[in-house]
Amino acid sequence: MTRGRFITFEGGEGAGKSTQLRRLVARLQAAGREVVATREPGGSPGAESIRELVLNGAADRWSPVTETLLMYAARRDHIERVIRPALDRGAWVVCDRFADSTRAYQGAAGGTAPGLISALETHILEGTRPDLTLIFDLPTEVGLERAHARAGSEMRFESKGMAFHERLREGFLAIAAAEPDRCAVVDARGDLDQVEAEVWAAVTDRLAVHA
Ligand code: T5A
Question: Which of 48, 70, 120, 150 has most ligand 1 atoms within 8 Å of its beta carbon, as the pocket-test mutant?
């Protein structure tokens, strides 16, 4: 059995990831793939319980280091119970946020030491890394406007202030620059169809998939 492919969507708040993830999943399914659509923090029952803890409450409820550990506890459960089994049976896994969000949110924007995050990547991911990461890039104020306009969002991270979100954007762009073979930056300013076309071009260019 050939291992499936692992695609992650990353970026700041309100960049349009979830909307585009649904469109990509539909296109991959139409191309005959088994696709598992999932998200972080969350994606398994245990990780969804941790999501409730980490995304709700006051902005300073958890320190960046504690957040890092909670994200990785959730991620380990998600990998063990959902991501690895799916990849092993040949399914494609499309995940809304993954390890780069910890690097950007808790690391670049939050100040958690890069050494701690690297150690967690080594020991907790154990090689479960994306084949392709789409980094949605958008001016910070546009993303926050979109996120605020959308109903039902957890607000803890959105309430952290403009400087935090600027550091976040720089953090994601630094990851893309450091790992160009894995990462593609998507200009998220376009309309829904323009962004969808950019996502599909990145997927078909970099992974073996036929429309
Ligand atoms: N987090 C997560 C960490 O801090 N560390 C970690 O390790 C991980 C894994 C998750 C939070 O957790 C943090 C990051 C996050 O703060 P969430 O509620 O899942 O919380 O939030 P997000 O992942 O940020 O998801 P959002 O829903 O906020 O943003 P999306 O998914 O990027 O945007 P989407 O698709 O929901 O769109 C937002 C709004 O914009 C509109 C949509 O219709 C929607 O109303 N929109 C557009 N409008 C105009 N043009 C377009 N092209 C548009 N695309 C979408």
Answer: 150
